[in-house]
Every structure is written in structure tokens, then in C-alpha cells.
Amino acid sequence: MRQSRLVSTTWREAPADAEAVSHQLMLRAGFIRQLAAGIYTYMPLGRRVLRKVEHIIRDEMDQTGAQELLMPAMQPAELWQESGRYSAYGPELIRFQDRHNREFALGPTHEEVITTLVRSEINSYRRLPVTLYQIQTKFRDERRPRFGLLRGREFLMKDAYSFDIDEEGLDQSYWAMYEAYKRIFSRCGLRFRAVEADAGTIGGEGGTHEFMALAEIGEDTIAVCTHCDYAANLEKADSGQPKHSPSILSEVPDIEKVHTPGIRTIDELTAFLNIRPDEMMKTLLLKADQKLVAVVLRGDHELNELKVKHALQASEITFAEPDEIRSASGVPVGFLGPVNLSVPLFVDRAAAEMATAVAGGNEADYHIRNVSPQRDLAGCTIGDFRNVTEGEPCPRCAEGSLTFHRGIETGHVFKLGTKYSEKLGAKFLNPSGQEQPFVMGCYGIGVSRILSAVVEQHYDESGIIWPEAIAPYHVHLIPISVKNEHQTGVARHLYEQLQKMGIDVLLDDRDERPGVKFKDADLIGIPVRVIIGKDAEQGTVEYTERRTLRKEAIRAEEALERIRQRFTLFSGNAN
């Protein structure tokens, strides 16, 4: 490609509202352009990267035996109503009516559509197992689109669905896809971890893993063991914290009432009583599907709403409003305590193992000392209702401890079981001639999100540094002066030879100052740069790798041979 013809404009500055580095750099380098909040055009450079990512995904999917199809983006609302997700999915589902007032949704995912399709196409165990996948634009009405491609309202996704006879078959399909995902993200140049996760609105009763690209801009926190391969999303992570036996009741002093005027927060109370947060209990009043419950945590721990939601089998968990707290307990915010509270009480395991604690006194301007969970919270439900903390022991091995990292979710694999096949009546005849529901798995990759995740990991102060496998071009040819016949002659020769080899090459044939060309080259981030300058007449060029910016004067033919050996493997990926 000749750069003078490339539809791409570089910017020296990014818009002020571009917060993420990847968003800034891809805008500045001309890979994407914003049409509306969370909606982007992929410019020719960006589209080439997308196509190379798609090539890798298709290659690995096909190797697993998966078959590609393409399903409609418009989905009849009755399918979602049949599965029970039409209302449960929430406002992120984009709903609309056609001219006949029939309700539709723009697909954020395709479990209902694929299940209905397979229900009509496969009726015998002899045609199983089967895995089908597509690469397609998805739609979600995000409340707050941000970080460019990392959280958009329209995005490119690979979604795959497996159909098996039984759980054993699903297990094989699941782990085959798990391994394929590891290869995909490795080939794309990502540093990532596969972590245990929650199934969210996709649902299912089996296992699920997220593939998290490690990056500080990531919206997810993951807990990783320092010794073994344990890794989990914070909402799912458990702790190997050793259990402590509570003190014998006879050793516990009586409850003591303490006047704490105007003291409402943990920080204020620790300072007032000269105690540590881990010597306190905090009582949180929540609404689980509109029913009030109280959750008790140690003062230094944070609530995990997802764990509470699962423990209570609730569809929704929200915090009670101040007036609801006063109505339930008779006290204002800041003084609620667990003793004699007239709502169902759920005590986190770490709080239940405390010998004694300071807690709210259920009276304005008062707290109480010497609260004993064993003595004073009889009849409560004990469970895991908190986030783990960094440094806690690993739940899987005895040697490691948990460290925290930020991550960008780039892929997710689920064991759905029969959640959708039962609701949608998707059945096949088993070897005994009896009908039974398909056992399903679901596997997604955020294709467009990979671009941002890669850039978040591969950049410097000058611009992007694309990994070789997904770079828009492999070689950037830059003649210093397009008016110099020797330089343009060598550049044209290299360009033609590289094209014959099938190497992706961009020739900067613009009549621009060298400084402009070099800055644009740094920003765009093509792996190898060949500069044709004053020594072109002697057949010498400057060979530079974008990652190191180390320059080397070599013969033009040697540059061709180096490039041939390095990039022939990747030739044709964007075509």
C-alpha cells in the first residue's frame, strides 16, 4: 500500500475525553474514528488489524472442529421471552418494534437463536457433538461507554456454542475451547490469565472462566496466587484464610454500651476508640429482591454483592436507603448493629470467627463493645460474603498468597448445561430412542476489544508497537526524499520484492519532511522500518525495529532476506 493513497490522518493530540492510552493512540494513529458514544468506524489500518485477529480466531476455531456460520443481528423478542431473559437482561438489551409492532432486540449474544436453530436441524445423538461459531457485530446499550473499544455499544465478537450428549462431552468441548483460547490470545501477543469467574446474565450451572489481559486500565480486579496457577475474578475469588476458633463464652465480657456522638464511619470510630478496623463489625442493610436482609462484615472487609446474591438466590441486590434503615432499626445511618436486629442476619465467615468486636448499638450516638458472634448472633447464617484481600493465603495451595492485578476481559467460556435447551425445547433422540435436552457450552471473544487490550500492553511514549501477527503491515518503507531518484528507485525495488513475497508492506511515498514521516511511523507502530536515505546510491538502507528503535545500516538485499525470514509465516493474514 502506498501511504499517499491510504485513508488515514494522524493527530498530534488526542481528544480530551479519550482517557485510555489505547483510545488515545488508536485515534491519533488513524485506526478508529468515533461516530457516537461507544460507536466507532474502523479505518483501513484498524480494519486490517481486525482481519488479522479474525484470521487467528478462525484458524484456531477450525482446528477444534468448530464450524462457522452467521446468524441475524435482529432477534425476535419472543425468543428472549421464552428463555426468560427479555426482562432479566436489563436496559443493556436494545429493544425496538418493526412497522407491524412486532418486538425485536439487537443481539448482544445469541444463545436463544443458536438453540432454536439446532433444535430444528439436529434430532439425533449420531450428529453430536457439534460446535458452531460466528464473528459478528453485537449491540449493548452501555450506561457509560468509555475507554474507546474497551466498553462500546457496538462491537465485534466471536461467539461459539457447543452441543453435546452429556456432561462428559460438554467437559471435553469446554476444555478444548479453553486451550484454543489460550493459543488465540498468545498468538495475538497478549499477556493474560485465565481466571475463575461468574456466569452473569449468560447463566448456566457449570464452570466458567474469563480470559483477562493484564493492564492497569482494566475494569476488573483479579486475584492471582504467587505460587500455583489459581486465579479468579475478585467477585469470585475465595481465600485460604485459616479458621480461628472463637473464645469460649465464659471468657467473653458482657456487652458494654459506648457513647459515640456523631461517629458514623469506620474511620471516625477507629480514631475515637483507638482501635483497628479489624476489631470492628459493620452491619449493612440490603434489599434482596426487595426483601430486607442484614450482612455483617469485619470492619476492614468489603462486601461482595455477587456472593450475597448467589447465597440468597436473589435476582437483584441493592443497598437500603437511609429511610429504610431507620424504619427497620429505628436508628439513623452509622449506628446499625447486628445484635437483636429484626431482619434476617447473614454473617461473613471472617466476622463470625472474631472473639469479640465493636459494633453499632442500634441506638443513635451509641456503639457497643464485646459483641461475641457465638453468643450474641445465634440463629444467623454464616457464609462467604466479602471480597478477598491482597496477601491472604491461596485457597488452593499451602505455599502461595493472593496478589491483585487489573485485567481487561477479552474472552469468556461457559458451561451452560441444559439451561437454554430445556427452556426452548431443544431435544435430540439418545441411543435409547428417548428425547433429552442438548448439553450446551458457550464461548465468547471480544474481537474488537483485543485491539485495545494489545495496545494497552504494547506502546511507548511515541506510539503503538504492534505484535507481528496482527500488525496492519509488517514493513514500513520510508524514502527520505521522494524527489531523489536513487531513493525512490531503491524504495520501489524493495516494495515490489516484498509484495511478491506476500509480505504486508506500507510505502511512505508522501512528499513530507522526514520528521513528519518518522513521527507518523512511530505512532502507527509497524514492526520493521526500512529507511532509504543518502546511502541509497551505494545500496545501503537503515533497518530499524519499532520495539527497540535500534538502527542498523545494512545492504538492501540483506534487509529483504531478513524480512523474508521473519514475516513469511504471517503473509496473507489480512487478505
Automatic annotation (TrEMBL):
Catalyzes the attachment of proline to tRNA(Pro) in a two-step reaction: proline is first activated by ATP to form Pro-AMP and then transferred to the acceptor end of tRNA(Pro). As ProRS can inadvertently accommodate and process non-cognate amino acids such as alanine and cysteine, to avoid such errors it has two additional distinct editing activities against alanine. One activity is designated as 'pretransfer' editing and involves the tRNA(Pro)-independent hydrolysis of activated Ala-AMP. It comes from Paenibacillus pinisoli. This is Proline--tRNA ligase. Keywords: Aminoacyl-tRNA synthetase, ATP-binding, Cytoplasm, Ligase, Nucleotide-binding, Protein biosynthesis. Homodimer. CDD domains: ProRS-INS, ProRS_anticodon_short, ProRS_core_prok. Gene3D superfamilies: Anticodon-binding domain, Bira Bifunctional Protein, Domain 2, YbaK/aminoacyl-tRNA synthetase-associated domain. Coiled coil: none annotated. GO terms for biological process: prolyl-tRNA aminoacylation. It catalyses: tRNA(Pro) + L-proline + ATP = L-prolyl-tRNA(Pro) + AMP + diphosphate.
